[in-house]
Write a structure and sequence with these properties.
Layout (H helix, E strand, L loop, with lengths): L7 E4 L5 H8 L3 E4 L8 H10 L2 E4 L7 H5 L7 E4 L9 H6 L3 E3 L6 H16 L2 H9 L21 E5 L3 H12 L3 E5 L5 H7 L2 E2 L2 H7 L2 E4 L13 H6 L5 E4 L8 H9 L5 E4 L19 E3 L8 H19 L12 H4 L5
Parallel strand pairs: 1-2, 1-3, 3-4, 4-5, 6-7, 6-9, 7-8, 9-10, 10-11, 11-12
Helix pairs in contact: 1-12, 5-7
Bound molecules: glyoxylic acid (GLV).
The site of glyoxylic acid (GLV) has 6 residues, from loops.
Length: about 325
């Protein structure tokens, strides 16, 4: 205790109790009471006076916030695997450790990506609206609400990391041909699942389902744009459970409206929450959800616990298990 007991932590949203209790047993903890992100002015004020922050992907921890931080801020612990909301470079320069929660959400996210793929292919959300909306008039329609088969088709996975590989395993169970594109090859999925490494153009041209599993980086911003959508099959579905800005929504609207592709399943959006007037939401061939791919009871709890364990390690002078910016160790060694 002693020194540790006086350390202060700011948590930007209520966490599951088990996770919060771990922090409370060791540090002075302040939890932002709202369901929406604390305003930037609050973040700027908090970073001046705390040793650690536990945040969500909707908190914009940019250079301005990081540069406002006091000497004592040592760690930013994100409760998510993606961390494009944090200026990691600025944090490293200031000797601030940044951590994320990889691994614990992989299978849950892959479950959801596959569920969204199936829902999109088989028009499940639209069918639900059809029944509830009183449109079901004939007992059984031979040609009613026809969708696309999934089994035996070709899936194109863009980004074959942890989540992409978990989606590939599910695809294998559906007897699908698996194509993938990434900046690095993944020999394991090639050997174990027979996945084929192809260039992006081939993937887009040959896949019946294109699913995105890349982080948001300058190089992946609008990766799926008008030109690339035009390469896809007219019967193809695009599934996005990664980050909204990986897809150019304006181009996607055109593609869906004009029939360049058949449908899209979107869990993530260029702006979140997306505007209810987003034209994509007017299209029946869009299956929409509010960024919930990792949202199971078990996984969200595991993510929160992992994040507080990372933060605890940082504040206790250890190297946290999920350090994103390893170079920070040179700027500020763990015990300082
Ligand atoms: C969710 O989107 C995450 O990055 O964990």
């Amino acid at each position: 205790m002693g020194e540790t007991a006086r350390k202060k932590v700011f948590v930007t949203r209520a966490l599951p109790e088990e996770a919060l209790n771990i922090l409370k047993s060791k540090f002075e903890v302040e939890v932002w009471p709202g369901e929406t992100p604390p305003p930037k002015s609050v973040l700027i004020e908090k970073v001046k006076e705390v040793d650690g922050i536990c945040c969500l992907l909707t908190d914009r921890i940019d250079r301005e916030v990081i540069e406002a931080a006091g000497e004592r801020l040592k760690g930013i612990s994100q409760v998510a695997v993606g961390y494009d909301n944090i200026d990691v470079e600025a944090a490293t320069e200031k000797g601030i450790y940044v951590t994320n929660t990889p691994g614990v959400l992989t299978e849950t996210t892959a479950d959801y990506a596959f569920a969204l793929l199936m829902a999109t292919a088989r028009r499940i959300a639209e069918a639900d609206r059809y029944v509830r909306g009183g449109k079901w008039k004939i007992p059984w329609g031979l040609m009613m609400l026809l969708g696309q088969d999934v089994w035996g088709k070709t899936i194109g996975i863009i980004g074959m990391g942890r989540i992409g590989s978990a989606v590939a395993r599910r695809a294998k169970g559906m007897n699908m041909r698996i194509l993938y594109y990434d900046i690095v090859r993944n020999k394991k999925v090639e050997e174990e699942l027979g996945a084929e490494y192809v260039d992006l153009e081939t993937l887009l041209k040959e896949s019946d389902f294109v699913t995105l599993h890349v982080p948001l980086l300058p190089s992946t911003h609008h990766l799926i744009n008008e030109d690339r959508l035009k390469l896809m099959k007219r019967t193809a579905c695009l599934i996005n459970t990664s980050r909204g800005p990986v897809v150019d929504e304006k181009a996607l609207y055109k593609a869906l409206k004009e029939g360049w592709i058949w449908a899209a399943g979107l869990d993530v959006w260029e702006k979140e929450p997306t505007d209810p007037d987003n034209p994509l939401l007017k299209l029946e061939n869009v299956t929409a959800s509010p960024h919930i791919a990792s949202a199971s009871y078990e996984t969200r709890k595991r993510m929160a616990i992992m994040a507080v364990e990372n933060l605890t390690a940082i504040l206790e002078g250890e190297v946290p298990p999920n350090l994103v910016n390893k170079e920070v160790l040179k700027v500020r060694p763990p015990t300082t």
